[in-house]
Specification:
By secondary structure, the protein is of the alpha/beta class. The chain has 3 helices and 9 strands, in the order E-H-E-E-E-H-E-E-H-E-E-E. Helices cover about 25% and strands about 30% of the residues. The strands form 2 sheets. Strands 1-2-3-4-5 form a 5-stranded mixed β-sheet, with helices on one face. A 4-stranded mixed β-sheet has the order 6-7-8-9, covered by helices on one side. Helix 1 (about 15-25) packs parallel to helix 2 (about 75-100).
Length: about 200
């Protein structure tokens, strides 16, 4: 698996890089199709924050995207927590793939390529310890309908802020396409615009 490591507000020591390559690199033993891992470290500047080190890992390969983000007092602990969280996610994904292949005679390591999933393209960490069989499927429990009027991204960000939401879906008046503004972890606002 190809591993890329980056950082913001912190330095990557050779020892930390070795731990990342060892712990994150071994995750492909659970699922052969994992091709790349992107590991990003960030350190909070506020001295009152106890878990100052953030480790964000994204694994990709064969149409699968797994992502986790953990906070810890130091980078080495953050890597350990990320490894454990990703291991649980991979086991959950394997269980789902095995259930899909059951009855077809295929195996996860040697069988046909998995069918594309209509689910979102990221599987984010749950705290499931025992496996995926005892976890219920995600269900939509509430539906909202509202008028999508054309707005500029700045107007949409203002509406999001006024409503106290973490995101706001709108029609971008500049592009004429669907868009979302969202509150980032660093407090800034991000924009996701539909490709045209």
């Amino acid at each position: 698996m190809e591993i890329s490591i980056s950082s913001r507000h912190t330095d990557i020591t050779p020892g930390l890089e070795e731990v990342v390559r060892s712990k994150i690199g071994q995750l492909d033993r659970y699922l052969d199709d994992l091709d790349t891992a992107e590991v990003h470290f960030d350190e909070a500047r506020n001295p009152r924050i106890v878990d100052r080190e953030t480790c964000e890992v994204t694994l990709t390969g064969h149409g699968h995207h797994l992502r986790c983000k953990v906070d810890a007092p130091d980078a080495f602990t953050a890597v350990d927590l990320a490894e454990a969280k990703l291991e649980r996610q991979i086991r959950k994904l394997r269980t789902r793939l095995q259930n899909r292949h059951r009855g077809r005679g295929d195996t996860i390591r040697t069988g046909a390529a998995p069918e594309p999933q209509p689910a979102p393209d990221a599987v984010d960490g749950s705290d499931d310890v025992d496996g995926a069989d005892d976890e219920p499927e995600l269900q939509i429990v509430k539906t909202k309908r509202f008028h999508l009027g054309p707005l500029t991204p700045a107007e949409a960000a203002l509406k999001m802020d006024l409503m106290g939401h973490g995101f706001f879906f709108f029609i971008n008046s500049t592009t004429g396409r669907s868009a979302v503004v969202y509150r980032r972890d660093d407090g800034a606002v991000g924009l996701i615009d539909e490709a045209g």
